[in-house]
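Data availability (excerpt). All sequences and predicted token strings are deposited with the supplementary files. A representative entry, A disintegrin and metalloproteinase with thrombospondin motifs 16, is shown inline so that the format can be inspected without opening the archive.
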Amino acid sequence: MICSFESLGMHHDSTGNACPKDGYIMSPSRGTRGETIWSDCSREIAEALPRTKACLLDASRKDTSEHSPSLDHARYRDLPGREWTAKRQCELLLRDKDASVVTLYQACQSLQCETPRRSGYYFAGPALEGTYCAPDRECRGGECSVVFEPPSDTSDGQRGSWSDWKEQPCVSGCLQRSKGARVRRRSCEDRSRRTMATCKGLHYDVLLCKDEWLCKKKRRTIGEFATLKCGLFSDRLAELDSTAKGLQVGHEPDRPWMACAIFCRRKDIAAYYAPRVELNDFGLDPYFPDGTWCHAEEGRDYFCRQHHCLPEDFLFGKKSRGDRQREGDAEVEELGPQNAWNRLGIADRFIKYLASGPDGLPLLTSISRGIASPPGEDEWIDKDYIELPAAA
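Structure token line:
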């Protein structure tokens, strides 16, 4: 059975009750951190449910309990995170099998997720109870606590190991001077089922490949491809000029995404703009296809891979994005959380940071670190209910 807490008679804290509005599960603000426990008001209602919602005590249907044990939540022993790992929680949030965890740092308060197909990162809320958060630790009540009762299938102490890479066929945008790209994936095989927790390295990678056999017709220019995409983007974003040409800007070593992002002319300012944030959740890719040529330097060609303009022989390292974030990598945090921002859409400096002049040069090369930070709890209200009039 799936139901909302409101249908059980619970109201948000501070709405019709004396409980504080922040810090608990039923807070009216969605919260970017914490809020993993019930308030006294919610507990009082929950304890009365056997009387107020007697149907909750109805026995399960015989065919459900006997033939579908997977529907019995008691099998998790109040620690669902041991099976629904942090990565699986991110996959569920973003509906993407390639989604992964940005960092396990403070995941018990606020799990951060990312995917190769979207910019920035996303808050998933506090990780589930039992989620691996550090060696020999798991999430309990919003804290990364010592594991008191290890799962029975980890008694031998074995750690995870990577499966073999599985490569997908070569695909190509068939653009001039460009190549094709091949995605490869692998999974962490771990008897404890804590996928991605005990395997170090990449689970997703993109390799260049020859595309001559795929591109037998005349190849499009990169500018033609950008113009076509900007026309599609303008159907969603009124601020884009649907009649103007699209643009590939020059490579910026400090911002390697620029030459791989599609820039479209804006109506409100005399500049071209990369709608990396606005298109995140529309299913429209604001980047050129992997394999697109983007730069040449000292006799070496550069191509787009995972939205970055990189030398042809570049190999992605083993360092995770979470490691880079803790080290203060500006690029990791430049776009901030994509489901908890209130400043990016209105900040003029941020628009200029994602914009380029007609000459292809950026209008702004840096922004203050706080411009993409999450809003305060009071600024992010999630009113997901309506008040019904009292019965006469």
